[in-house]
Design brief:
This protein has 257 residues and is α/β, with parallel strands linked by helices. Helices cover 45% and strands 10% of the residues.
């Protein structure tokens, strides 16, 4: 009787990944969809094992950073611990602003968080190694936290943000307004017009590329709307997550976290 090669069988198992979701629900759905589309699967069984903890009750990240609102960290930690208990090998978070809390959150976890901000920087430098200025469309909380500005500055890239009036009247309205993306999802024509106007202001100010730095923004605008390079952090995170999950160790079926 021939022996089964258990090493070969185990080596085909990709890492189980967790999505810390609910911030917001549309962004969580969008990331899940992007991960599915990025996965080189020929049938159902070749897709990744993904655990999603979609908790929309997590307090708003921008309100916490700008106005002293309730911290999202305790609820984010609860979600992350549930994912960890479910056996995920790493966690992704489809919220740019939430990455202001990632360093503290990571300190309470045994599994790593795949950092979206770092993944965006790596992608920008790979595609545009000589870039000097990038425009950032994001929540005011993301801008205030400087998660992008400091990360990119370490590689010599200046981050341009909209003027304060445009940030509030165009970008924040497009995200949080009654006719914004959080309320209406992708079917938000006013939000689309507002974001395109804010983007054009950044381009006029010298931006050589754009970061759509709120995971709701790519639901309304994208690369098809611009002649210069446009970076979708959720797409970049999805690609990075699939790449990490598909890495395998011959001995265990898992790569190191």
């Amino acid at each position: 009787m021939s022996k089964t090669n258990t090493t070969d069988q185990v080596s085909t198992i990709p890492l189980r990944l967790g999505i810390l979701g609910g911030l917001g629900p549309f962004a969580t759905l969008d990331l899940f969809d992007k991960i599915l589309r990025c996965t080189p699967a020929k049938n159902d069984q070749e897709h990744l094992h993904i655990v999603i903890d979609n908790n929309p009750r997590i307090p708003d990240r921008t309100a916490a950073l700008l106005h002293g609102g309730p911290s999202p960290l305790p609820a984010m930690l609860e979600s992350a611990l549930r994912l960890q208990q479910a056996g995920v090998r790493f966690i992704v978070i489809p919220c740019n602003t939430a990455h202001a809390f990632v360093p503290e959150l990571q300190g309470h976890l045994q599994v790593p968080i795949l950092n979206m901000i770092e993944a965006v920087k790596t992608t920008i430098l790979r595609r545009l190694p000589n870039i000097k200025r990038v425009g950032l469309l994001a929540t005011s909380g993301t801008i205030l936290s400087r998660v992008y500005a400091e990360t990119l500055a370490a590689s010599g890239i200046q981050t341009l943000s909209p003027a304060s009036s445009s940030q509030e009247e165009l970008v924040m309205s497009a995200i949080y307004g009654a006719q914004g993306i959080k309320a209406l999802g992708a079917n938000a024509p006013l939000a689309r017009r507002q974001l395109l106007q804010a983007a054009q202001e950044l381009i006029a100010a010298g931006a050589e590329a754009l970061i759509l730095g709120c995971t709701e923004i790519p639901l309304a605008i994208g690369q098809q709307d611009f002649d210069l390079p446009c970076f979708d952090p959720a797409q970049i995170l999805a690609e990075a997550a699939v790449t990490k999950a598909m890495r395998k160790s011959i001995s265990t079926g898992h790569s190191d976290p």
